[in-house]
């Protein structure tokens, strides 16, 4: 994870490769917490500290607070999901961008552990992933901006907005349909997200005139 800033937690620095250590510590805590999330269990900082054999102060010094830890865990699953979506995206130019976002949205919607987390902690999860309360949204915007820039430089992609603005708008569209059950009470729908992104980028959709 390259998006690490000076004020990041010790965990973020170790995940970014800027503060590595062979001793058990932040990465051990991260691995244990990540396993809990991926198996549909709740991360409790008191229980996590006890399992690691440290006090809560040490755990917080390692990984930050619970929200910071959850963001790192969720990003550790989202980032490779995005890379895989980009890798398998067909086409070039705007079509490739649409395909990548479509694949990413579908994979997120179908991630069982993520559905469980959203159901158990909807407000917290939504806040951490879609606002400045966490680094998640900023990181995802950066990844999409990178894809847009690559397509501009390689295949002449033209955009109606600057890359940074377009990336943010594409993320917001994806979020709208991933979290549509929490926002407006409708079933998450990757196909509608794909159609919306296609319209924005000028990619004709099947059945459109």
Automatic annotation (TrEMBL):
InterPro entries: Homeodomain-like_sf (IPR009057), TetR_C_36 (IPR041485). Pfam families: TetR_C_36. Residues 1-22 are annotated as: Disordered. Residues 94-202 form the QsdR TetR regulatory C-terminal domain. This is QsdR family transcriptional regulator. It comes from Amycolatopsis cynarae.
């Amino acid at each position: 994870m390259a998006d690490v800033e000076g004020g990041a937690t010790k965990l973020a620095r170790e995940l970014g490769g800027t503060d590595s250590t062979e001793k058990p510590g932040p990465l051990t805590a991260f691995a244990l917490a990540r396993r809990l999330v991926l198996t549909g269990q709740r991360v409790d900082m008191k229980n996590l500290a006890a399992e690691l054999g440290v006090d809560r102060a040490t755990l917080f010094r390692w990984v930050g607070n619970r929200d910071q830890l959850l963001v790192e865990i969720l990003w550790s699953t989202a980032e490779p999901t995005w890379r895989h979506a980009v890798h398998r995206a067909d086409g070039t130019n705007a079509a490739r961008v649409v395909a990548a976002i479509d694949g990413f949205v579908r994979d997120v919607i179908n991630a069982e552990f993520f559905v469980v987390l959203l159901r158990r902690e909807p407000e917290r999860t939504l806040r951490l992933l879609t606002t400045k309360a966490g680094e998640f949204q900023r990181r995802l915007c950066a990844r999409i901006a990178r894809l847009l820039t690559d397509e501009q430089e390689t295949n002449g992609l033209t955009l109606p907005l600057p890359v940074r603005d377009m990336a943010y708008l594409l993320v917001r569209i994806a979020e709208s349909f991933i979290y549509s059950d929490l926002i407006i009470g409708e079933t998450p729908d990757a196909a509608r997200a794909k159609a919306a992104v296609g319209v924005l980028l000028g990619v004709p959709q099947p059945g459109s005139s």
